[in-house]
Amino acid sequence: MTATRYDVIVIGSGHNGLVCGAYLAKSGLRTLVLERREIAGGAAVTEEFSPGFRASRFSYVMSLLHPRIIEDLELGSLGLEVLPANDLFCPLGGEDYIVFSADIRKTQAEFARFSRHDAQVYPQFARYLEESAAIVRKMLFETPVDPVRRSWASFKKSTALLWRHRAIGDRAYRIVDLLTQSAYDYLSAWFEHDAIKCVLAYYACIGTFAGPKSPGTAYVLMHHLMGEHQGAGGWGLRSVCARSTGANSAPASWSAMPPRPPCSGGSWRVSTCPPSCCVTSTPSARSRPPSR
Which pTM was predicted? Predict the structure, then answer.
């Protein structure tokens, strides 16, 4: 086994780790991605939980996957296919429910069973959120400025950022509302029926560790629109990102890691042995690279 030096070691091969590793390798850096489990993908893994039944372990939608990532890493050519997550069934208790559909008219028909007003206003609400998301989406790849740093360089960066996005104008108030209001207050300004507000507020609380009346949760309503996708969970993304990592110009490896990797002098000692990879001092911690 021969030791290999790497420019970068990424710890964790979840979807973020894989995308990060792929970009690093694409930039020409020798990259190693370490993973505790025997399979890459983290939360974005589809596995068999019962004989004959496969499902995503944690992820449920892939709406936040930005089209730029798909294009930069050429994921389409590696087999990525987005399956739409449509007609989402939302039980309300008893035998009642609401079904959200990509067809706004179908969703309106569902809302009309509870409130004619809410059914009528829903298209305007959806359009308003999408317009707000389009504003923030343009800023996703901007490096944040420090508004409190008093220097000429900081002032120039802040001014340049404002100038690039000057077309936003008074629409910036929309973003302020979303960032500061609770989901409950924001939705109450649009809808009147509690059942409709409750279902929409549910999507504002997933993964946020906050309740619908917590300030700032209104933003999460828009957050799910940021990636411009309505894909289902499971994420074949994890396998195609792993392939993309290996397909880039600089050498990139994927490896299982032990619970406590050996450390010496502040740096990690790592060796690889293709086609499977392992970590120094832990010959039992072997695994295969992600299947193609």
Answer: 0.69
